[in-house]
Amino acid sequence: MSKKKVKSNKSTPLSRAPWRDELHEIIFGTDTPAGKLFDVILLWVILASVLVVMLETVDAVAKPRQMFFFVVEWGFTIFFTVEYVLRIITSPKPKAYVFSFFGIIDLLAIIPTYIELFLTGGHYLLVIRVLRLFRVFRIFKLAKFLKQSNIIVESLKASREKITVFLVFITLLTVIVGAVMFIIEGETNREFSSIPKSIYWAIVTLTTVGYGDISPDTPLGQFLAAVIMIMGYVVIAVPTGIVSAELVNQPKRVLKRKKCDNCGHTGHRKVAKFCEFCGERLEDHLH
User: Fold this and answer.
1) CB 59 within 8 Å of CB 139
2) Residue 86 Cα distances to 24, 48, 90, 198, angstroms
């Protein structure tokens, strides 16, 4: 009796469970009443959690209610932890969400409370939760604001080389000026007791901050200080001019790029498959 070879069919990938799609529509979507309600509630919870962290630093409010703040803070943390896990589970591309802008912010919003178990005072870093309010642009369809922010980011990236050269020059200048001021004032003025302290004075003066905690006494030192004060305007004008020029030119340089229909971010490259902000799959059409 001959044995017949039975061809095994390759298993097809299982489709996503319906409950995942439903949760995804609520958690990531804003077009449905349930999705928008979830996001609005989330915004209020974020604001409340940040307010709690601020009030916890006020002794008159926090000391009599330490247990209350402890319970409330852990309540917020558990809520955000469950939300974060659900976002990973329901995301069509979990890894893309985890390493996206919003994914990282969502993770940073819950880590400080767990750090508090090992490091006292770590939970005060929870004010970083305020960054989660960036979702207000997606929730209320304010994508045009995200587009403008992308132009600013792209302008800063385009001008980073020029600004880097300028900052290196300013750093060298403050070192030289600090050393010269130490030579001029060091013998008669105890405030300029070392070159590092003189460099600190040069930075404060050149940036036009002018704390006034250190000041020259000799005429030559005062003359040099006046020159540095005038140069301080250049410190403000040069990087501002560099970035402003890029802001003007940036719209002309922006190529057609993919737009995320979920969050409205338009800074994706043509080859991008998933949104770097929310992890959603990008459509094939270009913006």
Assistant:
1) no
2) 9, 21, 6, 54
Q: Answer whether 18-141 and 157-253 agree in fold.
A: no
Q: Yes or no: is domain 18-141 CATH 1.20.120.350?
A: yes
Each residue of 56-69: pLDDT tens digit? 888 888 888 889 98
CATH topology of domain 157-253: Helix Hairpins (1.10.287)
CB 177 within 8 A of CB 194: no
Rounded to an integer, what distance in angstroms lies between the CA atom of residue 248 and that of residue 223?
Answer: 38
Cα within 13 Å of Cα(95), Cβ side? 1
The pTM of this model reads 0.53
Q: Of 76, 81, 82, whose CA–CA distance to 53 is shortest? A: 76
Q: What's the angle, vertex CA 23, arms to CA 22 and CA 26, rounded to 5?
A: 95
Rounded to 5 degrees, φ, ψ at 281 are -70, 135
Q: What are phi and psi of 268, to 5 degrees?
A: -85, 150
Question: pLDDT (tens digit, 9 = 90+) per residue, 261-281?
Answer: 666 666 555 556 677 667 677
Q: Domain boundaries in the chain?
A: 18-141, 157-253
The string of DSSP codes covering 209-249 is: ----SS---SHHHHHHHHHHHHHHHHHHHHHHHHHHHHHHH
C-beta atoms surrounding 168 within 10 Å: 10
Closest C-alpha to 41, from 54, 27, 51, 53: 27
DSSP H or E run through 277? none
Burial class (CB in 10 A: 0-12, 13-18, 19+), 219: exposed
Name the residue with tokens 């912010």: 105
Print burial letters for 108-143: b (CB count within 10 Å at least 16), e (below 16).
ebbbbbeebeeeeeebebbeebebbebbebbbeeeb
